[in-house]
Structures are given as C-alpha cells and as structure tokens.
Amino acid sequence: MRISLNWINELVEVKNINVDDLITKMTLGGFEVEEVFELKLEDNLETIIDISTTANRSDSLSIKGIAKEIAALTNQSYNFSNSLRNFFKFETIIKTSLLRNSKLKDCSMFMAVSIENLVNFSSPKWLKNKLLTNGLVPVDNLLDFQNYILIETGYPFEFYDLDQIRAKNLNSELNLYFSFPVDNTSFKANNDSEYNLNKNILILKNNQQILSIGGIIVNQQYAYTKFTKNLLIEGSIFRSQRIRQMSRSLGLRTDRSARYEKGLNTSNYLQSFSRLISLLKISNPNLDCKLEVIGYKKEKVISEINLNYKNILEILGPTEINFNNSSQDLLPNQISEYLSRLDFKFSFNQHDCTWNVKIPSSRLDDIEREIDLIEEIGRLHGFNNFVTRLPKITKIGDEDMSYQTRKKVTACLLNEGLNELIHYTLVNTQDVSDIKIINPLLLDYSKLRSTLLLNILITISENIKQGNRNIEGFEFGHVFSLNSRDMSYSELESLAGVFGGIKTKTTWSTNSTLLSWFEAKGKMESIFKKFNLFPSWKNSRPQKYKNILHPYRTGKFFLNNNKMVGVFGQINPMLAKNLNISSNLYLFEFNFSLLKTVLKNNKLPLYNYYSLYPRIIKDLSIIVDQKISFNKILTVVKANGSKYLVDVQVLDEYIGNPIPQNFRSLCIQLTFQSNNKTLLNSEIETIIKTIQSMLVKKFKIILRL
Length: 705
What we know:
- By secondary structure, this protein is an alpha+beta fold.
- It is built from 20 helices and 32 strands.
- A hairpin with a 5-residue loop joins strand 7 (about 185-190) and strand 8.
- The longest helix has 19 residues, at about 680-700.
- It comes from Coscinodiscus granii.
- It is found in: Plastid, Chloroplast.
C-alpha cells in the first residue's frame, strides 16, 4: 500500500519528523517498508512510502488507519482535517434509522442509499492527485470516488444504476435483501464473464432481480455507466470466510472482495458512508439522498482484558537507559501512556498494579488476550530498546521416550539405505475417506491425509520424471481418520516407507536382480529383529489401502499382544502404472504411537562384548558333488569347529575344467577367535584336520591344496 506523507500530514503532524526516523519507527512497529520514493505532481514533490502490513491488522489498510498508527508510534495527536468535519449530518440521520436485523446472511451490516439528480461525474483535482499518489490512474468518473473512499477509509462500496433497476422491476418500490440461489443460476457480471451460481453463493436481490454477487461483483444489467443519472449505493460488512469461499468457488477475485477477505468491522462504517455522499455532493449540490434499507447484526463483543504489571515485566524484561549497560523496568505511568496513545480506554488499580482495558471496536480482530496488549506496549516502546538476555541454562532437557524411539528407528532405517522424507499434511485426493477442510486456502491442500504412502509415491514419480533415480525413503507424520459411528476425528502418528525397484546383488555369485516379495518381507523382519520384536503376519489388506497395495501381496503386522501395528505389501500394479513407476516397490506403514508403546515395554536386547584377542583366519578348499547342498556342509563344519569357530563364509565357487563333471569347487573361509586367550596356530590346525576328515567321511570330498 502506498501512502503520501502530505496526505498523512493532514491527519497527523509529520512534517517535522525525519523520514528515516519515521521509517524506523514504522518498521519496528510491525509495518514493513518496501520502498520510499518521490513523485512529482505538477510543481510539488510528494514523498511516497510503500508499506505492507501484517495479516491481522486490517484496520491499518487505509490512510486513516495508517495515520492513527503513525500518531501512536510518534506520540502525535490524531486530528480530523476541516474537510472531514462537515459530513456527519447524514450520519446522524442514518443512526436514527439503524435497526437490528437478525435475518442478515453472512454480513454484520447492510445499508443502501438511493442518489438522484446526479449530473456531474467528474472528480475534484485534489482527489485525482491523491489517487495518483496511491498508484491509481484517475478516470474522471464514479470509479474515482469508489477508489478514493476505499483508500481513505478502507471500506468498499458498490454502485448500481437505479434507473435500470426500476425499469426492470414492475414494482417501483425497492425491496433489497440477501439470499442464496434456489437452483443453479446463470449470472453475467460487469466484467463480461458469465458465472454459474450454486446454492452457496450469496446474492443481493431486489424483489426477484439479482443485483450482484454479495461483496464481489455487480450484475452487468445494473452496473452504472456514463449515462447514469440516479445511483443506488450499497455498503455491507461481510464475513471474510464467506467471501473467500465464494471467490474460490467462482474463480473470481475483485478489489472489493480482496478487502473483505482481510476482515472488516463496523467501527467507522457510518462515517465512511457519509464521507462518500459528501464527496459526491461537491460537484452535485442538488443531490437527493434517500435511505432505502439499513440493518445490522450484533458483532462479537470482547470482554475487558486485565493487564498485570508483573506479566509485562516478565515478558518484555528491562529497558536500556544509558551507555553503561545499566537498565530499569518499564514504569506503570509509561504503560498507561502507551495505552492512551493506542486509544484504549482503561482503569488502573494502583493497589495490585493492574489495568482493566477496554478494546476499541477497530481492534477487536487482533486484540483478544493479555499477551496481545503486552505486544502493543512493546511495539510502542520499541522492541529494540529492551535488554537482550540469553537465559541461563542449568540443565539440558531430557530425551523423552517418543524422541528416543524416533531416533533409534531413524538410525535403523538410515542404515538400511532409506532417506528421510517430509511432506505436507494437507493433500488433494479423490479418496472419500480423507477429511475435507471447511475453509482451505488452496484446492491442492483441501484435505487431511489418511495415509503417508500416497505423498511418498508421488514424490518418487516426480523424481523419476526429472531423471532422478528411484528413491527409497521413509517418513514420520500424522494421519487423520473419521469414525463414522460417532462422527469423531482421530489423529495418529504414523511411520511409512518404500524400498525396492532398484536392481541389487543379494549374493556375490548372482547377477543384479530386483527384490522379490519374499526378500522384501525378510528385510522387514530383519528391521523388527533389530528392536527385539518378532511380529506375526496375516495375509490381508485393509480397506483404505485398496488402491495402494497389491491385492495378493499384502500382509498385516501383529505384535505379541495381537494388536495390528501396520501393513506391508507390494505396490498396486494399477497405481504403479498411473504414476509411471516400478511395480517392484514395497511399501510399509506402521502405527508409530503403538510401536512406541511396545518398544517402551520391550526388554532390552543383550549384547556380547567384543573380544580383545586376535582372530585366526583359515581357508578350506574342497571339491564336492553338486547334489550336496552347502547347508549340509556348513552343519558339519560348525559341529566340528569347536567353540572357537565364530564365522564361516564362502569365498569362491567354481564349476568347469579341471573340476570333474557334476562336481564343484568351494573355497570356505573359517574364522576362529577366543574371548579368553590368544589362540595358537597349532590348535587351529588340529581343528582344521578334524573338519577335513569329517567332510571326507560324510561327503567323500576331495581336498585341494
């Protein structure tokens, strides 16, 4: 938003304030200054400041709002200029007609005024100049007045051609009200686009005529033109949620709807309406005004907030007062001064040093708790004026069971070659079981996920499209479900992952192959074994994984207490085809909350001490009939290898010349080690000879030198 310092100076005395100092105060006060530049209008230079405000400060999105903020930040008085003092006569008439209307739909204020004898649309030169300072090009018609009042007061008003409304209405009396379409209705707006209105679109009607989509855009039939002589001016205060929902539904966003989306209240509504009428009267002194309809709905009323002096000191801390690093606390009279500058009404209890603060209606949207008031005090005093102190840490926090479990599981899965992934909790899926959000910001993030697996698979698909290799990964996250019996929602922490789809060598003697289902199942069992868990399996597929997991290669995990801890299976071939990814991917998803509880109560696995004595490694080369499996040979070797034999590995297998037909050559590596002493080579040779003799006796092997 652009503001002219000359325009601001009409309300707050800022001529004697250095521009850089003003920018610093505004920045520390929560207003981000994007740019400062000078604009030449005729023979005068205007200093323009381009600022952006926080989302919860809708009250500052106008010249009057910014002027009040600058007055509070610079400790200046806020004054109405003489040009703003003469338009309250019509406001008095409005107030006497103001009636509470509980039938208003999604708006807290609804008012319409008919304007007749409108002969001059041209806007004053000073008004055009002020529009230019705000970055708007004047068009010298009614749009200038709409834009100006929006910039000055922050309230959007809509104009209609009153003659067109009367011409298409047999009943000359206006009957204005808000409603929803009964059936899908076609609506052509003044932007030459046609929209289909569903039953959730709020519309303004006069009898059976649809004048506009509430708070967004006017019906083309009733939009004003350069030939308009009589106007209907409508001003309403809509719920921001309703306007956002309608804008997304229609795919339409206007300057008016954008202002409603940020939130409005009725604090200065009547003054703004009166101000608009007074501007039109400048070039139309014989203007006739008639109040057609007015009503309001009671807005939220915040109770008085108690502000405690101790809480202020505890949160804000002491302030710096000199260059010797000495400091002192804020004084109660300083706090009272800041509350006055913010236009907060309050009473001070000197006995217990507390304030009872009444919040002005313009700040009801962002001041709701004591901490909000403390933030305002810090903002006016300047957060940079408080002493920065790091807390003295006497004890480092303990790792709770949840963190310990997560750390162990993460380390285990990383060691298995999986990468940790992170995705958004909000998704956009066709699954009817996913929970819809009432007021999503974007269609792509309109539901709460019921499983982590879909996002992981989409990430794999996107990486493959970009030419990256297949990803093996896992993710911790929260999933949500709806209990259809009592319509209650539940949230669980889940652990999910994917692996496979990459050719690997499982043994040294085979070619690289894709992981089979049984090998993948064994990998999952080995991961559980590392946590001293031995789950049971059941061949079944839960309903929510129907479109994700393979119908016949899916199983459930059950722990000792017969509680299902999760599922494991191969990807559904149809889903793999749709995502253009490998069908040899294996997926798992566990209830991490349940897994955490089981691990907490599980006995700790036992570990053997590492031997301090050296190993002796011997190779044994034999020729054996191919019909004899290596497992049989291994059994004999282990049975005769004594307690010192700790490992047996196959180093080499060879078939062909000069090995006899139907025989194979094996080279077996034997590792010996003791936990109590250093082994002698002579001891090991004796054991080797025993093993050789037993292999010759059992399998008639041929020893190779």
